[in-house]
Structure formats: C-alpha cells, structure tokens
Amino acid sequence: MDKKWWKESVVYQIYPRSFCDSNGDGIGDLNGITSKMDYLQELGIDVIWLSPVYQSPNADNGYDISDYQAIMEEFGTMEDYDRMLKSAHDHGIRIVMDLVVNHTSDEHEWFIESRKSKDNPKRDYYIWREGKDGHEPNNWGSCFSGSAWKYDEATDMYYLHMFAEKQPDLNWENPVVRDEVFKMMTWWCEKGIDGFRMDVISMISKAEGLPDGKKGEGELYGDYTPYVCNGPHVHEYLQEMNQKVLSRYDLLTVGECAGVTLEEAKKYANSQGTELNMVFQFEHMDLDAGETCKWTDRKVPLPALKEIMNKWQTGLEGCAWNSLYWCNHDQPRMLSRMGNDSDEYRELSAKMLATTLHMMQGTPYVYQGEELGMTNVPFRNMDDIRDIESINAFREMTEAGIFDEETMFRYICYKGRDNARTPVQWDDSENAGFTTGTPWIMVNPNYTKINAKEQVSRPDSVFNYYKKLIALRHTEDVIVYGTFELLMPDDENVFAYTRTLDGTRLFVACNYSQDTVSVEAPADFAGQKAELLISNYAEQGDTPAAVLRPYEAVVWKK
Ligand code: NOJ
Fold first, then answer.
1. What ligand 1 atom has the least distance to the C-alpha of 63?
2. β-bridge pairing 323-324 and 504-511
3. Can you tell me the distance from the alpha carbon of 237 to that of 170, in angstroms, rounded to the nearest whole number?
4. Which helix (H) or strand (E) holds 142?
5. Distance 462 CA to ligand 1 centre (A)
6. Any atom of ligand 1 within 6 Å of the Cβ of 60
7. For residue 21, which of 379, 444, 385, 441 has the smallest C-alpha distance?
8. Cα separation of 139 and 220, whole Å?
C-alpha cells in the first residue's frame, strides 16, 4: 500500500465565475473565493481545483487563455491571487490550478505572431495546413460544432482548433512549445501552488498525417477520436513534463482524458509515478449519450453504471489511481440526472449519490454547490443560455434538421453545461447572496430553499452529510485504500459493494429508486451486528436490514 496525501484528499472544484462576487460586477472573483475559505474549511475539503483564472477573452469562460501568467481582470489581480493562495494554505487547503495547454486563445501573443506569416518564428507553435481542393485539410468536426479547421486569409492556410475557433491547438510536436509550457508550469510551481488539473491532456498529440475520420450516414463530420485522443506521443510528452517539472515538486496531478480506456489510464496514472497521479475518465458520463452526440434526455440504466464503475475500481487496483466524480463544470447536476430533484426526495437522493461515490477507492471531487444539493436549472429559453457549446450545438443541430428547436432546447436543459454554472446559492437574499449586481447568468430560482446558510445550520442537511463523508475518509483507511467488490451487479435499483483492508470490511448499499427494495448483505454482514458508519435515514437497527427504503444509503463496518 503506497500511501500518498493526494490519495487521502478530497478535492473541491471552484468555477470562479459563478462562485462568489466580491465587487458587485455580477462575476465571481478571487476575493470572493478568499471570503469563503472558512466555509470550505468547515466542509473539510483538502484541495481546491480552481478552474482557469488566467487572462482570457472568455470565448469559453477562461478555457481560452491569452496570458498564462496574468489574472483575468474580472477576477482581480495577481495580488488578489497571492492573497487567496496564502489564505487557502493558512486554512490547510491546497490549490490545484487548471492547466489548459492543448490550445491557447487566438489572442495569445504566440498565436498573434504565428498567424502573421509562414516564416514567422512562432509559425510552428500551432497546427497549420494547406486546404484540400478549396476545402478544409480534413473532415474533423470541432467539439463545439462546425469544422475543426479555420481558414486564415493572411497566409491562405487553415489552423486546427479542436474546440472553438478562438482556441487554436498548440503544436506539441514542436520542442520549443513544450519548453515554453514547462517554463510556465515551473513559474506557477515556484509560486507555491500544489498541482495541476490538465485540460483535455489526452488530446495533445495528433496522429501523423491528420487522416480523415470515419463518417457515418447523416453525420456532418468525421470522427477524429482515433487520431486525436491518446495520440502517438502523448505518454512521451507527459513523461518529459514529469521529468522536467512535476517530479521536482510535491503535486497533485490529474489529467482530463477524453477517450481514455482502462489500458491507457494504466499508463497515464501508473503507480511508478512517471506521468500523472490520476485521470478523469468519461465512460460513466457517456452512458446517457445519444448515438452520435451527447444531446438526449435518456436516463442511465443502473446496471450499466455499476459495470463501468466496477471496471475502473477493480481495473486500476494496485497499478494506478482513480479519480471519483459525479459533477463538474461540464456536466449537468448529477442530482437531476441520476437522483430525484423533487422536494420529497432531493436531499435523500443527493446523500445517496454522494455515499455511492465517496465510499469508493480513488480521490473524490466535489463540484461547487453539489454539497448543497443544487439541481439543474429551469432555463426559460435560449436567451438564458451562455455556454458556447450549447449555443453552437443548438444552431448546428436545428439548422441541419437533426433536432427541432423544442427538442434541442429540452436536451440543453437536461444535459447543457450551464446547469452547473449558475451562481452558488449562498443564502435566500436577492441573487442568492452571490452578487449585489446583476449576475452574468441567471440564478436558479430554487435558491430560496436551497442555499448554504440554511444547509450549514441544519444538522441533517446535504452539506452536513458531505462534511461527515469527507471526515470519514480522513479517519478510515479502508475507505482510501481498501479493495472493492461489487455485489448484485444486475439489480436495477441497488448499488451495493464491499471494501476490504486487512481485517476491516465495509458494506455499502444504496437504493437508486423511490420504492422499498430488497438487498442482500454479504455473508459476514447478513443478520450480524455491525457498526453504522453513515446513513441518510435517522433510524437504523444494529444489523444490516434486508430492505432499503426510497433512496436509502447505508455504510456498515466490521
Ligand atoms: C474541457 C473543459 O473542462 C471545458 O470546460 C472546456 O470547454 C474544454 N476542455 C476546452 O478547453
């Protein structure tokens, strides 16, 4: 058992724009984060992952960076940043920065130079190609709709952008680019930060020749995945990054790895520590995707979810490390997706989902507001939507006649990223206490009943349940290091498993339905006295029951 602080930590993700506004401009900022440090300490988290705070024209809310060593004006100054970092450390909280280096903003000085001429010294910082018979160099679509190529008149060539037009992809094959990135990372490490969450890091190495992707009938673009995700040199580049930067500091590193398989994850997050500590995989998030894209309102079947979680829990055991998440700034609220956000079951199902995740092996990530039981948002129409992905997809899908407007809007309300991006609900005053100004995106109207002030003060709230789950991870080694065994794999309602470390065993059982259902405890728990570690129902006996009430979650220890 190789003990590490980042295996024993719980990470809390902050999306700064929506966290807390200190100066009344309607946009969250660094001083707002500093003002909530006591709150985060009370929750008990160990690490903050800070979504990008760098200078950016905000085509993609900071994931388009124009200067990696400057702070976005709307968020404050470098002095505000330093104060925030110090305050976090004073509260015993580490800071992990978002590292967005698959692409920059087109307003980054590197790209401004690069696009000037074919012989500019920075030309090869990006991926430029000639058109093919007056068309794009290949048939790849961008993740944010449209072609992945943008024609640039100045030199009569195209540049590659896997995301928005304003996010040109860096050319990682160029060693000068890699050195620039490593230099910038070192600068942040010297400042005293504690790690990096690496944006779409699995996409930095593109296949030789950039071949056309397979295009199914009715599809607008070819599938770039085999040529972009987990590309030919990605592990080489990460090993180089590890040698030149990461291994010189004591960091938490997590790679956002679109398209990662179990076999690839064993390389990225290998326990020898030659690349990263862990990856974010997407298989459990993709379960409710449609045939060709994420836009549907279909529900995840529980047996499929269990199969995938089981695969990752057992597949990485002893050779790599898992990250655990239900929510982030790119996903709708899990409570509305897999739980039940009605008044009757909201809190029970929020606690049940949290129990399922927080009792597994891996480093758990809590996304701002998840600890309050925040839900998806009743957007009224497309005017309420701010996210470039949703706005572009709405246009593309409706113009191509793939979905009508009403259907597409319904999908955006269910799956769109803005569900996670409305302001954190601090109290029941105007704008949920997020800002004294006009918020940049609507506040979820349910803030009058779902807010931090009420949650913190009520002992049986979702907040206080998360607090307990987090504290348990700090005291129970079996939660961090125990092995995982799935029970009842085919059951449609119950997610149950055991964790085992030496002589200590946990039995975790969660009911994903609003019915009372039966559950089979393993032989060493059935009918036997055990210690109740946590449950979302107040009344429990002293032995595991044979039934679970609606959305009930229990964790027994022996
Ligand atoms: C993944 C990030 O999480 C997402 O928010 C962003 O839009 C894309 N990468 C592009 O940077």
1. 11
2. unpaired
3. 13
4. none
5. 28
6. yes
7. 441
8. 9
71 alpha carbon, distance to own chain's centre: 22
Q: What per-residue confidence (pLDDT) applies to 218? A: 84
Kindly report, residue by residue over 465-479, the tens digit of the pLDDT: 999 999 999 999 999
Q: Which of 46, 199, 341, 476 is catalytic?
A: 199
CA distance 551 to 540: 14
The Cα 282–Cα 258 span in angstroms is 7
- The pLDDT tens digits for 24-45 are 999 999 999 999 999 999 999 9
Q: Which amino acid is at 497?
A: Y
- How long, in residues, is the chain? 558
Is there a catalytic annotation at residue 199? Answer: yes
Q: Is the pTM of this model over 0.85?
A: yes
| 64 CA → ligand 1 middle, Å | 9
Q: Is the beta carbon of 49 within 6 A of some atom in ligand 1?
A: no
d(CA 498, CA 313): 12
Percent with pLDDT over 70 in the chain: 100
pLDDT band per the 50, 70, 90 thresholds, residue 505 = very high
Active site residue 152: no
What tokens appear for 111 in the block? Answer: 């790209």
